[in-house]
Write a structure and sequence with these properties.
heterodimer, A: mainly alpha, B: alpha/beta, Rossmann fold, 2 domains, four-stranded antiparallel sheet, 37% helix, globular
Chain lengths: 248, 315
């Protein structure tokens, strides 16, 4: 397959799993926004608007993680229920093209949500050009590790119902318990230690720093980026080793 | 004409197999280039496992399998560029329209949009799907979904196409439309490997047939060859004029509703017809069907479940 053909395959997968389902059922977009907007609503109401920005940065991280959990369900459903993956395996489409195509297709669902959050941040005066660049980088990395995690887990799931069970647990473990919607300092000391095992802690730290919600030293920012990039790379490595294209 | 597929002592034991029952047990066969090759066997005989290995979806445990001259272990990339597959129990993505299922599959395979559109239209026409082209898959019957998948894969024009029970759930008219499309593809020198539970379908379509039982090749050849290899190539049904004991000298006798079914040889069939006419018995005679051959060779009906199925399901 030439590079042109690979790109065509990838874009076709984005169209097939991202654009067309939204055209058929636009409520898919609201589905992904429901949880982040609910958190934002509660946080804003309870804090009388003072913590709105935490709700927005947290919502952005949660939206990108939801892309991963959505991907996990789609992959499992396509592999076991529809046998779509078998159709693709027995074709010129290579595994990395399928992975990238499916990952980008899920990203389509998140774009309106991210757009809404950026507009709220801008209205709140927190969306400087520098902040937007940092936020874009952080969101891409969160999307990256959520995608890698989805591919790894989907390999082991035998039924889409298992993904329904795991998805809320993943959200709980990566966005509610770690300080995504609040500053790390709000947690007691022992909980801060545990929170540092979650990559979303570093993503939130960078997002909160970029929007001026929390002070962020250059050293801390460097550490956050390093951990986030390393974690994403490690998950991609695990996905590459564990995810099955051809059944053993 | 060479082999499109060459299997040599191919073995597969699923990791979670019950008691280590092999799904394929030293299977050797050659699928010639061009034409339809039918794989028949009971549930769990190993047909789907063979197709999945040949379609590079599943690793074999032992032996060797070459598709279009490339080993499935190592040569996957070259093989995948030239094959297409309708897996067993596969379904098209429910949120697509029928025409999108075909068009997007072809584009995903790397075809230019104009060519993908041309082939989509041709496939829709050929399988009488044009009137459903704009309909969502979620609103189609099971048979139409299956037909859409067949159209999708046949439109690919791949050198080797694997169709694993492609007509399950189709009504007789739709089955014949799929047969027509398969025949057209095979006339264009494509190789089609087909598994089916419908023995009439296997006989109608296949230039050659392989009968698989417990992961092994039991019988292989053209439908005519297979008839020549069974003990009794003729079947005679009789009503009245004979007793069971009298008929036993002609061949293998079974009681059927209102009479007897006798599997016999050509000379004995002639004698039997003569005697039946003298006695005024009602008689019908003809060559054995594929179902009869299956029953004779395997000793069980094709509709009964095979032992290896549990192994396949557990994997």
């Amino acid at each position: 397959m030439s590079e042109r053909h690979r790109l065509r395959s990838l874009l076709t997968l984005v169209q097939l799993n991202g654009i067309i389902p939204i055209r058929t059922q636009p409520l898919y977009l609201l589905n992904l926004l429901a949880s982040p907007l609910s958190f934002l609503f509660f946080i804003t109401v309870i804090s009388h608007g003072s913590l709105l920005a935490y709700g927005v940065t947290g919502g952005m991280v949660l939206t990108m993680l939801s892309v991963g959990t959505g991907l996990q369900s789609d992959l499992t459903h396509y592999r076991h229920d529809l046998k779509f993956q078998d159709v693709v395996v027995a074709s010129p489409v290579e595994a990395p093209v399928y992975v990238a195509g499916m990952a980008f297709s899920e990203l389509v669902y998140s774009l309106p949500g991210i757009g809404v959050f950026v507009v709220i941040l801008a209205a709140d005066g927190l969306a400087s050009a520098e902040a937007c660049v940092v936020l874009a980088g952080v969101m891409l990395l969160v999307w990256g590790f959520a995608t890698a995690l989805a591919f790894t887990l989907a390999t082991y799931f035998e039924d889409v119902r298992e993904t329904f069970m795991f998805s809320p647990l993943i959200s709980l473990g990566l966005t509610v318990l770690p300080p995504v919607y609040y500053p790390l300092s709000a947690l007691p000391g022992w909980a801060q230690v545990i929170a540092r095992f979650s990559p979303t802690t570093y993503a939130a730290s960078l997002a909160q720093g970029a929007t001026g919600l929390q002070p962020l030293s250059t050293g801390q920012a460097l550490l956050d980026w390093t951990v986030l990039v390393t974690f994403t790379a490690a998950l991609f490595l695990i996905a590459a080793v564990k995810a099955r294209w051809k059944e053993p | 004409m060479g082999s499109a597929i060459h299997a040599e002592r191919l073995g597969k034991v699923y990791r979670h197999s019950v008691k280590g029952v092999p799904a394929l047990d030293g299977l050797s066969l050659d699928v010639p280039t061009g034409g339809v090759y039918g794989l028949i066997g009971r549930n769990g005989a190993g047909k789907t496992t063979f197709i999945r290995i040949a379609a590079t979806q599943l690793e074999p445990t032992s032996g060797r399998l070459d598709v279009l001259g490339e080993n499935v272990q190592g040569g996957e990339r070259k093989i995948r560029a030239r094959i297409a597959c309708v897996p067993q129990e596969s379904r098209p993505l429910y949120f697509l329209r029928v025409e999108e299922v075909i068009y997007l599959y072809l584009k995903m395979r790397g075809l230019e949009p104009a060519e993908a559109r041309r082939r989509t239209k041709a496939a829709l026409d050929e399988l009488s799907l044009t009137e459903y082209a704009k309909r969502l898959v979620s609103r189609l019957s099971g048979g139409l979904r299956r037909r859409t998948l067949c159209a999708m894969v046949l439109a690919s024009d791949a050198d080797v196409m694997f169709l694993d029970e492609p007509t399950t759930g189709l009504d007789p008219i739709a089955r014949r439309e799929v047969w027509q499309a398969i025949r057209r593809a095979s006339r264009e020198h494509r190789t089609i490997v087909l598994t089916t539970h419908y023995l009439d379908e296997a006989e109608q379509l296949s230039g050659r047939l392989a009968l698989i039982e417990r992961g092994q090749l039991v019988l292989e050849g053209s439908p005519g060859d297979l008839r020549g290899r069974v003990r009794y190539p003729y079947r005679v049904t009789l009503q009245g004029g004979f007793t069971h004991a009298e008929l036993e000298s002609y061949g293998q006798v079974s009681d059927v509703e209102g009479g007897y079914l006798v599997f016999t040889r050509e000379a004995e069939a002639r004698d039997l017809a003569k005697v039946a006419l003298e006695r005024g018995a009602r008689l019908s005679m003809g060559p054995v069907s594929l179902e009869d051959i299956f029953l004779d060779v395997v000793g069980k009906s094709i509709d009964s479940d095979g032992d290896a199925e549990t192994a396949e399901e557990a994997a």
